[in-house]
Amino acid sequence: MFIDVHCHIDDTTYGDVGALIEKCRDRGVGRIICVGFDLPSSVYSKELAEKYDQVYFTAGFHPTELKDYKEGDLHKIKELCMHEKCVALGEIGLDYHYEDTDRQKQRDIFVRQLGLAAELGLPVEIHSRDCAEDMLNILKDNRQLIKGGALMHCYSHSVEIAEELVKLGLYFSFGGASTWKGSKRVKRVIAMLPAERILTETDSPYMPPQSLYGTFPNTPQSIPEIAANIAAIKGIDEEQFEMQAYENALRLFSKLR
Fold this sequence. Notes:
Mean pLDDT: 97
CATH architecture: Alpha-Beta Barrel
Largest sheet: 8 strands, parallel
Order of helices and strands: EHHEHEHEHEHEHEHEHH
Helix content: 40-55%
Radius of gyration: 17 Å
CATH superfamily: Metal-dependent hydrolases
Strand content: 15-25%
Distance between the termini: 13 Å
CATH topology: TIM Barrel
Low-confidence stretches: none
Number of domains: 1
Structural class: alpha/beta
């Protein structure tokens, strides 16, 4: 059984979501974690999880989606996180890619959400772009807040940063970008990481794998190709890695059980 631990599914992009989920099941993708990035998307992800057995969800504020954030919103996120099918708080983190970024606000809300996850005993799904040093320092300074587990989704930083994050107990998920011919740094990271720390994602509808490069939307049906690529990089049997990734997901996301 394959698991997509990070994707964004909605009927605006995909049309018939039920048909999509059936196609994913036919491809062996038995569980899908639909990730919230603000309050409305977190509520929508909850509704999908309530409607479809194989869908689970997360709730949280993405660092680039804080313009509409207001006091009291984290309490609403907390209520969503207490749902039986909410497996993590996320996606949260830092993103310094855009020039108008309020970095201090991102850092403050990130740490507050880490604190909320610790209070609830939940893992976190972390987004991290163009912020490697700050991300590492915040996680080191707040390591007591990630005892429930943490996933660095779509990891794109260096091998050296990854080595430090492994020491903090983090997991890492990789999607279609890891199959691209030019993704040499990501491949080096995958080769270095213990297989026990790697999970599979698509970040759908974005970042399709090499076989679908340039197409939109990507879907969780891409997970088998992504998993096969990771297995090849690690030099292990595809079925062996499939089972390992499944076990990793159950270990990190206890509510998946």
